[in-house]
Amino acid sequence: MELKNLDLLPLLSYFEECHEDDLLSFTQWLDKAIYMFHYLPSDAFSELERQNVCHVLMELKEVVMEIHVEQNNCA
């Protein structure tokens, strides 16, 4: 399945409504979520599941940071 720009409108709305277009705020919350994963009981997730979830969150953070940097370079 190929994503189109229109598919991302709910995500853009989320950034606008919940983070007031502040992508850095969003990345800070991602950092907190990743940090909190380390304090869950060890039987809540397998080590592989924990690594995979943290990896996905880190990749999402990296993409958001790239968008933030590109926006600031174009401004």
Structure characterization notes:
By secondary structure, the protein is mainly alpha-helical. It is built from three helices and no strands. It is globular, with a radius of gyration of 15 Å.
Fold blueprint:
Blueprint: H1 9-19, H2 23-37, H3 47-74
Helix pairs in contact: 2-3
Termini separation: 33 Å
What is the molecular shape? globular
Low-pLDDT segments, ≥5 res: none
Strand percent estimate: under 5%
| Total strand segments | 0
Helicity, as a percent range: over 70%
Alpha-beta classification: mainly alpha
Strand count, sense and barrel status of the largest sheet are: none
User: Count the helices. How many?
Assistant: 3
SSE ordering: HHH
